[in-house]
Amino acid sequence: MNLSNPIELLHKAKNTHGDLSPTQEAEFSNLINLASQYPNALITRTVTASLLGLSIKSLEAWASNGSRNLPYQKCSRSVRYRLGDIKAYMDANTRTHTL
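and the corresponding C-alpha cells:
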C-alpha cells in the first residue's frame, strides 16, 4: 500500500460495520498512524464512523447533543473530522480496565 499518498488511502476507506477484512484493518491502522504526519487531514463522517466502529447516526447524535468531545468542521452541508482529533479521541478513551 502506498503510504506516500494519504489522500488515496483516505478515499479507500469504506463504511463497514461488523468484521473487517485484513486489508481493511491494515488500511484503518495506516490511517490512524498517519495522524501524526497529517493531523489536519479532513475525513468524512462515514470514514470516521468506520474508524471508531460506530454508526453514522451515532456521530450525528454526538454532534447534535454535544455528548462527546469529538470536534468536527462543517462547511455548508458537509461534515468533516480532522484525523488528529480522531486519534486524540481514541487515545483519550483507551482503557485498560473497567473501573
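(Above: one complete record from the training split.) The beta strands are 42-44, 73-75, 78-82.
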